[in-house]
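Weekly structure sync, notes
Attendees: PL (lead), two postdocs, one rotation student
Agenda item 3: pending single-chain targets
PL asked that the sequence for the first pending target be pasted directly into the notes so everyone works from the same version. It is reproduced below exactly as submitted, 116 residues in total.
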Amino acid sequence: MDFEFVTDVTGQPLAKCDIESEAFGDWLSHDLGTNTKAISDLLLTVDGLLAKRAADAEITGKIYHLVIADDEVDLFLNNTELSGQEFEEEFSDGPVAGCGLVEFKHLLQSWLEFIQ
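Predicted structure, written out during the meeting:
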């Protein structure tokens, strides 16, 4: 996954990910934001999953719902009642983005470094 971090005109950090993973950028920017404790806690969860101390994890945020299972990370929209036919077809019941667990950990670590 390709990503970059920037600050907007108000100084708020924004994450931008490649087209296949752009929802992760939105999730980082708006669900996690600059909450370093939440990011650190999530990194501890990821480490536990990588060490096989846990089988899976689910985190519900303001906009997205994160599901981690079998070394895969899937991001879903919280609101499954989407309005607009084009969105219903594109996102119906499936993840809006996904990646591997190691790749996800790298994304989280990079975001944490950027916002500190």
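Discussion points:
- The two ends are 22 Å apart (CA to CA).
- The helical segments are 22-32, 36-50, 85-91, 101-115.
Action: rotation student to compare against the earlier draft before next sync.
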